[in-house]
Write a sequence for this structure.
């Protein structure tokens, strides 16, 4: 069985918002590696939750660099996560759940092929 991480977040525009989910786009055979990735996401989300509107990006980056998996993505100041794959290679992931209108809600390890499992029942 392969696993991925599903992110629940709030998104919207100037007039409305709604909750949605998205998957990282990478997966693991090793549940332990998936759990390590989830821990990296949890650590950065706990840190992001502590920041206020008045915290500058420079101040945020000083704290983020202390976390495993933090990466500076591009010249516009976007940041990302580096998550370890089954073979130990680090894969960069853009945190799509962060943006002007986005707010992180939760992250969960889920099976990639949810249609062939007996872990969910739907009428």
């Amino acid at each position: 069985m392969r696993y991925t991480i599903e992110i629940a977040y709030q998104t919207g525009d100037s007039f409305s918002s709604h909750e949605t989910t998205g998957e990282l786009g990478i997966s693991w055979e090793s549940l332990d590696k998936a759990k390590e990735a989830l821990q990296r996401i949890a650590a950065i989300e706990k840190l992001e939750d502590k920041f206020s509107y008045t915290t500058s990006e420079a101040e945020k980056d000083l704290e983020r660099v202390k976390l495993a998996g933090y990466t500076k993505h591009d010249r516009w100041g976007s940041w990302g996560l580096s998550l370890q794959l089954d073979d130990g290679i680090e894969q960069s992931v853009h945190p799509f759940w962060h943006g002007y209108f986005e707010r992180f809600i939760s992250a969960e390890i889920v099976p990639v092929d949810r249609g062939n499992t007996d872990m969910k029942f739907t009428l």
Q: What stands out?
A: The CA atoms of residues 51 and 60 lie 7 Å apart. The first helix runs from residue 31 to 50. Residues 3-111 form one domain.
